[in-house]
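Page 47, continued from p. 46.
Same chain as before, 301 aa.
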Amino acid sequence: MSTGTAAGSERTGRLGQRVWTYQGGYARRPLSAFFMLLIVFIVMCTLVGKYYDEDSSFRLAFRAVVVADVLCLALCVRHARIRIREYEHGFELRRPGRRTLRYAWQEIASVESTRVSVHINFAHSHDVLKTVIRPYTGGRIRVRGLDYIKVREECGFWRMISRPNPETGGRFVSAAAQAVGQARAQRLVDELGAGGSFHWGALTFTAEGMTLAPFTGPVAWSRIAVVSANPGSGVRLDVQGLAAHVGSRALSARATKKGYRTDGDRLEVFVPVRRPGSDYAALSILLAYGAALHSGRDEGR
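Result:
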């Protein structure tokens, strides 16, 4: 066994048991281009007898279409050979002709996803899930989750796509965001326990609870409950006694000028406008840990 192989095996061993494998399925952009160029190629084939010998520009265009079609097909084949292996404590990305990437969840800074709906002729065609994984060290990793298919064991392309209702790599994106959020939340809990603080727009979290700018005095962890936290709608919390804390039944976003609004005990924070999905997962987990964090600190005293 070579040194590189041994190091890779040792690194994979640290990631734990393999959970799922995601194989490259439909590479939508090169596949769409391939079929369009194939139609053009068929049309040009019907005109070869008339123009190929007489028109040099037709010959050049014909050859260009053939080369472009072959290139698109090669890209589709290359994509089908990509493997994303999800492990208990991290993941591995294998791409033909490139270095294999292995990361533990603790080594990832954020996972950010954007879902785009594609329409053709005013009708919905498909969705694209663009994901950017940012490690603490190294370059960004771009993944289109819906272009991959989840399998328990690696198999051939035709066998993979012939399965009824195959699940896409969207599950990997969700699992990665949750796992990275869990790892970041644990770091935040440790920092707060050591006397640090964490800022989210107008919100400041400490071991004592949450402070809402510009109001002074923390809101105890036991009074805070998460309603939702995601990039689409921001952060929504139920805070017991919020109206008394801010001195008003309801505060509009224009009145606060801090990127949040209140309505009774409901607090809606929409600034920062958009953060990675893993950050929202970390915040949700942190808020769930908050009460235990404060009680643990009281016991330590």
